[in-house]
Amino acid sequence: MVSMATPVLLLLRDPSRSTGYDAVEPGEPVANALDLGITRGDGIFETITVLAGIPQALDAHLARFDRSAALLDLPRPHRAAWREAVFAAIDSHDEVAESFIKLLYSRGIEGSALPTGWVWMQPSADFTAERVEGIAVVLLDRGYHSTVAQTSPWLLQGAKTLSYAINRAAVREAHRRGADDVIFTSTDGYLLEGPTSTVVLKLDDRFVTPATELGILPGTTQESIFEIAVLNGYHTAYERLTPADLERADAAWLVSSVRNAAPIRAVDGVPRFVDAELTESINAGLASRTN
Ligand code: PLP
Asked: How many Cβ atoms sit within 10 Å of the Cβ of residue 8?
């Protein structure tokens, strides 16, 4: 059940400077009708889980925020200003078991040279069913070759941009096919990522995820899972993976902030084994992160 706690909204005065923020009523608009984030999807975002008042993997999220801004030639986000706004949002928010914070950063009104940035915090939905029973996925061709990030950096593969209409359309296609979620593949047949998640496979004693050189986001949840796996004696690797690897994997997950590790229980309608015990220990490990 989603908590009734009131969301918190903070508007940064200048997201690329240490000029502070203002608290805004959650129902009030923060962006102009001509903001390029709205009219062109020209901006970036991050979604961060907050557990017991701790923003999970905050440094990794802020580093990825910087990386996305650089890929879009946006002014560099002022790291300390965003960090301060994150903790201010947490201070103002009711304490709930699981919540999330979104950092949103757009190019601002066309011609103004002043980017727009805001921080939103609200309770998370309940993802128990996805974490325990698992999710059915379909493989969908993203239409890009695995070298897209090198050949065509202007396609912004690997940046967390506000242009998620394609990702949402892919999930609707999964629903049409009777599944819950998607694993994108490259035109040359490699596993990429989900529309809002990273693919992690367990192959014997190794946890393996697709290499980011394939034009995918470096996942903060996957990074935490690799740390947990190493502490538990597993090896980890970033590799080129194929649907055949997914088929032979001992276990497979889509992992992301907020939902955490969702075991994959079917691929293109074919049921696959869910390692409930290992999934539970991964999610317990994620829930016990202290930063
Ligand atoms: N890949 C994409 C395209 C995403 O949008 C996300 C998160 O939303 C992820 C991977 C997973 O990243 P994280 O684990 O940092 O949430």
From this structure: 21
